[in-house]
Amino acid sequence: MKDNIILIGLSTSGKTTIGKEVSRILEKTFIDCDSLIQEKQGKTINEIFEVYGEKYFRELEKELVNNLMGIENAIISTGGGLPIYNNNLDKLKHIGLVIFLDAPLNEIIERSIKVKDRPLLTGNIEKTISKLYNERINIYRKAHYILNTENLSVDQCANNIISVLK
């Protein structure tokens, strides 16, 4: 297995924030999959969904995962749905150590209410998040490691991830 760490979990579970901290401590490159897609497309995730639809976006994610196959020494933050589609989770497991950030549902809901740039977080946020969680949890749990982030600070999460590597 390569020396990459890949963080998966629901939107707003802390993948980017915790990933940046782990990359800082370990002096590894930080890669945010959603940001890479936005840069390449010149559009926000919301705009991609609006203009081209979710299926197109999932194809962009698939292409990105394939392009990550040769990457080394990186911390990778995925979009919430990336591991769910196109057999991406199995591919991610070949890229590095996959860690599921299992944040409590009530925290995810609370954070998601404040977010405006996630296309799947619309309507009744509590209902939407609960539905996504139930649809995705069994795939997320196939990660190499599950980190329950409840009552943990960003620093504590980062240190737990680093201790898994030892």
UniProtKB/TrEMBL annotation:
<feature type="binding site">
    <location>
        <begin position="12"/>
        <end position="17"/>
    </location>
    <ligand>
        <name>ATP</name>
    </ligand>
</feature>
<comment type="function">
    <text>Catalyzes the specific phosphorylation of the 3-hydroxyl group of shikimic acid using ATP as a cosubstrate.</text>
</comment>
<keyword id="KW-0479">Metal-binding</keyword>
<feature type="binding site">
    <location>
        <position position="34"/>
    </location>
    <ligand>
        <name>substrate</name>
    </ligand>
</feature>
<dbReference type="InterPro" id="IPR000623">
    <property type="entry name" value="Shikimate_kinase/TSH1"/>
</dbReference>
<feature type="binding site">
    <location>
        <position position="136"/>
    </location>
    <ligand>
        <name>substrate</name>
    </ligand>
</feature>
<keyword id="KW-0808">Transferase</keyword>
<feature type="binding site">
    <location>
        <position position="80"/>
    </location>
    <ligand>
        <name>substrate</name>
    </ligand>
</feature>
<dbReference type="InterPro" id="IPR027417">
    <property type="entry name" value="P-loop_NTPase"/>
</dbReference>
<feature type="binding site">
    <location>
        <position position="118"/>
    </location>
    <ligand>
        <name>ATP</name>
    </ligand>
</feature>
<keyword id="KW-0057">Aromatic amino acid biosynthesis</keyword>
<keyword id="KW-0028">Amino-acid biosynthesis</keyword>
<comment type="subunit">
    <text>Monomer.</text>
</comment>
<dbReference type="Pfam" id="PF01202">
    <property type="entry name" value="SKI"/>
</dbReference>
<keyword id="KW-0067">ATP-binding</keyword>
<keyword id="KW-0460">Magnesium</keyword>
<keyword id="KW-0547">Nucleotide-binding</keyword>
<comment type="pathway">
    <text>Metabolic intermediate biosynthesis; chorismate biosynthesis; chorismate from D-erythrose 4-phosphate and phosphoenolpyruvate: step 5/7.</text>
</comment>
<keyword id="KW-0963">Cytoplasm</keyword>
<feature type="binding site">
    <location>
        <position position="16"/>
    </location>
    <ligand>
        <name>Mg(2+)</name>
    </ligand>
</feature>
<dbReference type="InterPro" id="IPR031322">
    <property type="entry name" value="Shikimate/glucono_kinase"/>
</dbReference>
<protein>
    <recommendedName>
        <fullName>Shikimate kinase</fullName>
        <ecNumber>2.7.1.71</ecNumber>
    </recommendedName>
</protein>
<keyword id="KW-0418">Kinase</keyword>
<feature type="binding site">
    <location>
        <position position="58"/>
    </location>
    <ligand>
        <name>substrate</name>
    </ligand>
</feature>
<comment type="similarity">
    <text>Belongs to the shikimate kinase family.</text>
</comment>
<dbReference type="GO" id="GO:0004765">
    <property type="term" value="F:shikimate kinase activity"/>
</dbReference>
